[in-house]
User: Fold this.
Amino acid sequence: MAKKKLNVAMIGYGFMGRAHSNAYCKVNHFFDLEYQPVLKVACARNAEQIKTFADNWGYESTETDWRKVIERKDVDAIDICTPNNLHKDIAIAAAEAGKMILCEKPLAMNGPEGEEMCKAVEKAGVANTVWYNYRRVPAVTLAKQLIDEGRLGKIFHYRAVFLQDWTISAELPQGGQGLWRLDAAAAGSGVTGDLLAHCIDTAIWLNGSMKDVSAMTETFIKERVHTATGQKQAVGIDDACAFLARFKNGSLATFESTRYARGHKALYTFEINGEHASIQWDLHDLHRLNYFDHRDDSIVRGWRSVHVTDGDMPYMDKWWVPGLQIGYEHSFVHQVADFLDNVAKGKPTAPTFRDALETQHICDAVLKSAKTGSWEQVPS
Amino acid sequence: MAKKKLNVAMIGYGFMGRAHSNAYCKVNHFFDLEYQPVLKVACARNAEQIKTFADNWGYESTETDWRKVIERKDVDAIDICTPNNLHKDIAIAAAEAGKMILCEKPLAMNGPEGEEMCKAVEKAGVANTVWYNYRRVPAVTLAKQLIDEGRLGKIFHYRAVFLQDWTISAELPQGGQGLWRLDAAAAGSGVTGDLLAHCIDTAIWLNGSMKDVSAMTETFIKERVHTATGQKQAVGIDDACAFLARFKNGSLATFESTRYARGHKALYTFEINGEHASIQWDLHDLHRLNYFDHRDDSIVRGWRSVHVTDGDMPYMDKWWVPGLQIGYEHSFVHQVADFLDNVAKGKPTAPTFRDALETQHICDAVLKSAKTGSWEQVPS
Amino acid sequence: MAKKKLNVAMIGYGFMGRAHSNAYCKVNHFFDLEYQPVLKVACARNAEQIKTFADNWGYESTETDWRKVIERKDVDAIDICTPNNLHKDIAIAAAEAGKMILCEKPLAMNGPEGEEMCKAVEKAGVANTVWYNYRRVPAVTLAKQLIDEGRLGKIFHYRAVFLQDWTISAELPQGGQGLWRLDAAAAGSGVTGDLLAHCIDTAIWLNGSMKDVSAMTETFIKERVHTATGQKQAVGIDDACAFLARFKNGSLATFESTRYARGHKALYTFEINGEHASIQWDLHDLHRLNYFDHRDDSIVRGWRSVHVTDGDMPYMDKWWVPGLQIGYEHSFVHQVADFLDNVAKGKPTAPTFRDALETQHICDAVLKSAKTGSWEQVPS
Amino acid sequence: MAKKKLNVAMIGYGFMGRAHSNAYCKVNHFFDLEYQPVLKVACARNAEQIKTFADNWGYESTETDWRKVIERKDVDAIDICTPNNLHKDIAIAAAEAGKMILCEKPLAMNGPEGEEMCKAVEKAGVANTVWYNYRRVPAVTLAKQLIDEGRLGKIFHYRAVFLQDWTISAELPQGGQGLWRLDAAAAGSGVTGDLLAHCIDTAIWLNGSMKDVSAMTETFIKERVHTATGQKQAVGIDDACAFLARFKNGSLATFESTRYARGHKALYTFEINGEHASIQWDLHDLHRLNYFDHRDDSIVRGWRSVHVTDGDMPYMDKWWVPGLQIGYEHSFVHQVADFLDNVAKGKPTAPTFRDALETQHICDAVLKSAKTGSWEQVPS
Assistant:
């Protein structure tokens, strides 16, 4: 049976542009879906670079002005892969034009921006989702399933870190392709929006809403050359951020993120401790889930290293055979698959803009607490 | 610049048919190559099933007789993904028709068959390679690089196992889709050709040729229902095989494979111990390489867990960023990339049929030793 | 050569009484020291129980009143293994009597008590030490050595947790042998003084003094039967405590401790991230140290698992051969060995009461912050 | 209650002399036993060295001729810690004198010697045991318990290695204190008797008797200076040995040992795969047992890392609290405890000489097979 076409416009062509394009190309080979994405147009200001990108991935055309993309009749969905400071304008314009939107995370530069975006998509009634891709790493999805089944019982503790070490050198500039994440004007914040946002999205998905937070941030390298000016400029982002939190379910949490943790490339880990059982996960070995169940016979009780590659585990019936792992890129394929499936069924795809707004609010509270030195309530 | 087309015919549509098709679809998105594979035709006896497979992957046409495929003028390369008992006839016919050949492993049912196949491709002068894909898992390729750089010094020991547990149930039949590996008529041997062949291919690549072997095999479940007849029949394959070996470089080795090792899905591990350094690898965490270097400062000397995801590691500049792992399927993408690149340069792609014949000879010696109870020389 | 005798009086006979007695019995078998401890007297209120304890360990006599012990002329050193609420009175009396003192941790119920104790021992000029035994786990001592050698460079981050799960059941009473740790009157605080005190002691030893902290605490089970009354009483201790901290060297830290982390028996871990290198340690595998050095050749760079069992590693020349691990109890033997050696040399044995007072002050600041909801300065 | 005295004579004062003496000193502090060992006499040819040893450990007297020790009326038990070539004569003389015997492993230089020793102790009716201490590492004892409870079901595979790297240097001499293990005249064999004997003892305890073996050995360094002569002499021991085996219960096995496995200090590991469950253990983390149970719920099935430190695990009620590990030396304490308890009850302490003879026979078969190149039956 012929697939229905869903015409995608990609805005941006960096790391995430590649990750999403790969997902669009791959999804129908592995998932049996009513819809098939068509790579209609790729857009970026640099005409030559976007042409190269489009050719490589098979986009049918290119644009250099994102407003043109939104005006196009042959586009069903807009994929926003730009720096964070452009998310709001593009998303609102896209919503007003009735386009579906798949927006990179974090949703916005801050909560108020995010609120505007939510209103826009909700008013327009367009399908929308935010690329918090780690929810769809099979081991993480499995964690959600175990929690929903009640296996952990009452939750006491949540802890997460996202540790990197790639900005330790003072020679690294801020701004430009790949390095806009060090430029507060483009990124909004540093590790809080970039890394902790992931940790927070997973946490509220697994453990519910947060009540309040107490945070600290630090910028270890105070000045870096800006690629736009060639001059040393004050660094506006947070290099590191840690915070304490209380969840509404009564559990306590610690969160920490930094780009100065020597030895960790992208070590996102979380652990959740319940009355009966606990769960750990680690992005560096994303195909494994550690699980401890106190109800096991005491003499053989221990942390189980579950190799999440079997057909009865989330998404894994689509891939290879037990023992053969998938990787980072597959989380995006899963999100596309779910999005297409939900479009066919008229259902939302979590995390929606509204879901992602909660993360945005927490990031805001965290950054505020780091400034005030006080506990800050998370707006509900 | 427009890519040159390389028209591929796929014979077979099982697990490996999917793995290779995915590699053909993906390779040009990540590798900058002169050639681009075109999925020209897919072939299998069952017309309906091959049509479904072809539609899913975008093959332009289908055939139900592999001889027709080989006669087609619009086919440049034949990819053999059939059960082992068909490799020889297809490969020889393909070679005689001047087609390039990418053949699934093991090369053949046995050494004499393999010898005929080598002669055919060498006489025809066609490009040929065998899908011993694990050579191109980046961590394994890195192991090869470290050894070639001389970091290990004189080698003393090699040990490898390939442990699975999926055939422990006596209810599992032999024969048919997915289960032809339990049928000696289709597979030739059991774990020896299926799993140990991988271990041996890696071993001779990393550590050179073997001298002699002493082996034992076992068939734990003596009879299984055959899907072709519905009757219980003697099981002709080896469920488990272990052997001792001596390499020509003076090192000692142990190899073991089984499908009765409860708890292991596809645990292929190898370790190599040299005078100065040692290396370990494990398919269940294929993105890591363990490395020990005795020349390290003694108080901080230990096994290093190297997360093989950085851009200066084999193949990894093509994928994501440090810390983000790739998976099993990528090893096939790498082999296609190397094959296409070598075709452009007129160079062979290891392991060639001739390289794979050495593995076949070792498998034969292993199976012979298991029968005779004596050490058997590996023919050189 | 005959050893000099150092007559020890043990006050208390619980878990720590055993651990210390074992250390006194063992130390001269493995360490070549001028002094030999003599188990002179054991003291506890229950005459029968202390007799059994004394017989088991070879104490020459018993007492039921600790004041009698301090009056004895044949006692050189007092080992305080009582609940925390008795530390101060015993220590001050012992100091005034000119006895050396080995006091269990935490030093006192709070900072002011600790200050009095410091003044007493310093005025009396008696040798004194506090049993923060983890400093002398060889892997931890090695960590200190690596840091002191400057291998890590500038420090960015410190993180430590001490996770247990033994008080999750609401049926557990407070008070009595082994359970006085749940009774605020005897223990002073919960996990803060019991577990975080260890984390803090190690941290300030490895990373210097702290500036300020922001903490939260929780008591998950609000009421427990008290063994003294048989009645349900409010639980006064903290079941869990987490805090953020800034060190004076500019590094950021997170600390967390709980007895509600299902799956962890006594998981004390710390990690320290420096500019050039990082270190991890874990009490559950106390004989290993993980070390990452960014200066390693990039393609073989990874966390090294150092098996701290070689003769050139701290204390390990005294024990077995490489590969053969020691355990928890040996940390106490090491502290006794260092104490005896320092007594012979007239040198102090860290952590002294004064060193331990710093930890006490931090615990106080942590508990205060948890109440005020504000960042609290650590008194210097 | 006063303990009964059991007077021990120690012959030898090397590594094992220390390990056993420590066990004798410690055992009654932790185990409630009828008997208490008394360190009566220590014996070695060098009067000065044995005096130092005796003083250190508290032996009441010394001898320089082991025959004198056996003649002494005040000695109940002889502990043989000499090089292997003296085991037989001492043991037989001790048995004839009616002494209990605790003999270091391997029992003898070879099977015929061992047979004589067995006959002697059995004729004399004296208590006897061989120090295959690893049986009493709690995790290993727990493995035995799990197997005896039938948790694994039918056994398919057993594999063990004992890997070291301390003799790689060609500069190391043979002979003398600590290095008699490289001298065939003193040791009998190399890694086979030293290391594989441990693996075999555990294996037959856990998995029953062996049927036949096929082995290979290698001596990588052909000549080493002998400390007795100062001259280079041919090395008579095996540096490495690997063998295949079949157990009587139908399971297959591989064993390997070497002193040339760079990166491994004393890596004794075993794994046993059964129909329902599997077990792994590793001497480098001897306080853990890995356990996989196929009957676990499939989505949370994985290898469990059991931290063997709880009171309901073998021997662990005698030590500390959950989470706090013991070490290598404790295995000897456990063997002494069991021996003393069995003496009180008139029961034998496994492994007896007779039990250890089976290991000796297997070692002989292994060494013979390595010479003949054939499978060799294990005499039953």
Q: What stands out?
A: Chain A touches chain B through 37 residues (CB under 8 Å). Chain A has two domains: 4-132, 134-377. The domain at 4-132 of chain A is CATH 3.40.50.720 (Rossmann fold).
